[in-house]
Amino acid sequence: MIRLQLFLTFFKIGLFTFGGGYAMIPLIKSEVLAHGWAEAEDIINYIAISESTPGPLAVNMATFIGRTTGGIPGALCATLGVVLPSFLIIFIIAGAYNRYRKSRIIQGVMAGLKPAVVGMIAAALISLGMEVFIYDKHPGTLSSIISVIIFAVMIILSFRKKSPVMIILISGVAGIITGYTTGL
To answer: Cα(120)–Cα(114) distance, rounded to whole angstroms?
Structure first.
């Protein structure tokens, strides 16, 4: 039963979320919390792990949550669920897009989807930011201050076009050092 729930839940997430993994985060979070498959803090950790490993964020999260919840079969069901809608939609659209891409209707749809995707990514950023910086277990403590510093340094490195691998490694090392020095 859990495997079917994982498949259907992640199929719905894959079907109704446009804009990639970051845009899926709010829906993944609400669905996983609603099913009781994880706590809010766990989801932040799932995102960090999924972002730090090769592959698309949503696929990695589905696999990780599926594995944690339903073992290897659960991982396969959740992963298939989140990937299948995109595969089917792209398969259908790919044939028609080249033929109709100059259509005013298609251009209008694309013009409407772009700001919606940016809004969904911004909502994910705000939601995650609140979890990390505001609802931290120790708000106002040294750990919160260090988290803000790490965040600021990573933003600066990103705008300076530094390698994402380097940014992930530096933030991981900073987190390890923070954990050891502050006793988190």
So the answer is: 10
DSSP 46-62: HHHHHHHSSS-HHHHHH
Query: Which pair of tokens denotes residue 155?
Result: 């933003």
Measured torsion, CA atoms of residues 44, 148, 168, 170, in degrees rounded to the nearest 10: -140
Q: What is the pLDDT of residues 85-100, one digit of tens each?
A: 988 988 888 878 778 8
Q: How many CB atoms lie within 10 A of CB 26?
A: 17
Evaluate if residue 148 carries a pLDDT over 60: yes
71: phi > 0 → left, psi -120 to 50 → alpha, else beta; which? left
The string of pLDDT tens digits covering residues 74-86 is 999 999 999 999 8
Give the global pTM. 0.62
Q: Which candidate, 148, 103, 145, 116, places its Cα nearest to that of 20?
A: 116
Q: Which two tokens stand for residue 89?
A: 């939609």
